[in-house]
Amino acid sequence: MGTVTALRPKEENRYPGIAEAPRFSCALGGAYMATLATFGAVPILHSGAGCGMSQNFGQNFAAGLNGAGPQGNTSTPCSCLVEEHAVFGGEDKLRALIQSTTELVRGDLFAVVSGCVPALIGDDVGAVVKEFREKVPILHVNTAGFVGNSYKGYEQYLDAVIDQLLTPQTVVRKRVNLLGVVPYQHIFWKGNLQVLKDLLAAVGVEANMIFTEPDGLEALRRIPSAELNLVFSPWSGVPAARKLKEKFGTPFAVIPSVPVGPKDTSQFLQFLARRLQLRRSRVEAYIAKEEARTYRFAEYMADIAMMALPNAYTAVVADTGTAIGLTRYGSNELGWLPEIVIVTDDPPEESREEIVRSLTEGLESAVKPEVHFEIDAHKIRLLLREHTVQLVLASSLEKYLAVDELDAMQLSVAFPAYDRLIVDRTYAGYRGGLALMEDIAYKYGGPL
Ligand code: SF4
Fold first, then answer.
1. Are strands 370-373 and 252-254 parallel, antiparallel or unpaired?
2. To test the ligand 1 pocket, which listed residue (28, 125, 157) has its Cβ within 8 A of the most ligand atoms?
3. Whose CA is nearest to atom 8 of ligand 1?
4. Class of domain 309-417
5. What is d(CA 73, CA 56) in angstroms, rounded to the nearest whole number?
6. Ligand 1 atom at minimal distance to the Cα of residue 29
7. Smallest CA separation from ligand 1 atom 1, residue
8. Which residues contact ligand 1 via a Cβ below 6 A?
9. Where along the chain do its domains lie?
10. Closest residue to atom 5 of ligand 1, CA basis
């Protein structure tokens, strides 16, 4: 008998620890981006020199061709650790870097974000940061790339803020914090936060966006004064909300996604009216006014939507919140048929059942989507190829696949989006649905 070789294992088992082009960066990347999103905060990276630079293309540029802002990219101080520090430690270099940064760079808050190298060589970064606590507002985000992805880094940043910066405050009635919208990972984060803030202001609620507030340090310090924390994701931001409840007693509410279009936006406001005991007549009057305007304006897109793309079979490939928001809007307001949804942000196992429920229940379409959780670009491609769809709402990684292999239209709505500039664009709120249609319809609207 000759040599018997084992059957070739199935492709998915051959490299179980490897994912092709996952749609996030490392935890350092998430904490770094959260720092940049806090206006007035200065990140100080204690890491290899490439850690910060790789986030330029891997995080902010991937989030709709965004720049990193005044404290990002080559303007970010970094200890640039090399072999010598791996042998002798990097604490002295970090100490000197913090000293020079606090002298030379104008900032309201400094955040030392440590990466893989100091975690592996055992630098006591916390002790070095402590030496500066009396002189400047400073945090240590004790992360490392290998502890998780960018979403984990976002949580670790909030964790550091809660533990090292926040103190109990008097609760201000009708003030809320907005959590769960992760800077850069949610590519419409800036617009989403602003729309939520404006919506809430219209019904008499003061929203602390935290990110992009003009005074970032003050926005962080205000966090414990909120009456309620609103988390716009079934999982992202939930650990921070739990910790704030434990530490300051602030209750929280989880909204599965930033609402897209009139139906979900009105439902969200009605929920808030009950939860915060708002004046119902004011909320209902605002809802009536916004719905009337939005549906009247929808008439302008109705002809092209019905003629060119009626009841489109759609595929959505996106992070949890974006997938839920767009699937619900497409099914409940545009008559789309959600064929498949692939969730790409690797939510924890314990949240997945709830996410599937949000993606399959409460839909008015006859078709309910097949839901997958997948981060590997190649496996996502294989999953999509099993379906016939006309519209693919995904990342720019699916751009050519959609056109060449699925014969479908594609719009980049999720990370990474290297094919469109997103500054203030958003699909949130009453007018967000119209904005989505504007972005889609121009692709098939006319022959020329
Ligand atoms: S995984 Fe580690 S080494 Fe790589 S960029 Fe992130 S912190 Fe740096």
1. unpaired
2. 28
3. 51
4. alpha beta
5. 6
6. 6
7. 145
8. 26, 28, 47-48, 51, 54, 115-116, 145
9. 27-164, 175-276, 309-417
10. 51
**Alpha-carbon distance 318 to 351, whole Å?**
16
Fold agreement (27-164, 309-417): yes
C-alpha dihedral sign at 180, 186, 189, 192: negative
> What's the CATH code, domain 175-276?
3.40.50.1980
Q: How far apart are CA 281 and CA 195, in angstroms?
A: 21
| 3 state SS for 185-249 | CECCHHHHHHHHHHHHHHCCCEEECCCCCCCHHHHHHHHHHCCEEEECCCCCCHHHHHHHHHHHC
For the question of whether the overall pTM of this predicted structure is more than 0.90, the answer is: yes
> What does the block give as tokens for 189?
């984060």
**Tens-digit pLDDT profile for the chain (448 aa)?**
334 444 444 455 556 678 889 999 999 999 999 999 999 999 999 999 999 999 988 999 999 999 999 999 899 999 999 988 888 889 999 999 999 999 999 999 999 999 999 999 999 999 999 999 999 999 999 999 899 999 999 999 999 999 999 999 999 999 999 999 999 999 999 999 999 999 999 999 999 999 999 999 999 999 999 999 999 999 999 999 999 999 999 999 999 999 999 999 999 999 999 999 999 999 999 999 999 999 999 999 888 888 878 899 999 999 999 999 999 999 999 999 999 999 999 999 999 999 999 999 999 999 999 999 999 999 999 999 999 999 999 999 999 999 999 999 999 999 999 999 999 999 999 999 999 999 988 777 766 5
For residue 328, the CA-to-ligand 1 centroid distance in Å is: 36
Spacing, Cα 436 to ligand 1 middle (Å):
35
Residue nearest to atom 2 of ligand 1 (CA): 145
| Closest-CA residue to 25 (of 72, 60, 64) | 60
Nearest alpha carbon, ligand 1 atom 6:
145
**Measured at the alpha carbon of residue 422, what is the angle toward residues 421 and 428, in degrees to the nearest 5?**
150
Mutate to test the pocket of ligand 1, among 47, 78, 120 (most ligand atoms within 8 A of CB): 47
Give the Å distance between the CA of 114 and the centre of ligand 1. Answer: 10
Best residue among 51, 121, 149 to mutate for probing ligand 1, ranked by most atoms within 8 Å of CB: 51
| 27-164 CATH pick, 3.90.1100.10, 3.75.10.10, 3.40.50.1980, 3.40.640.10 | 3.40.50.1980
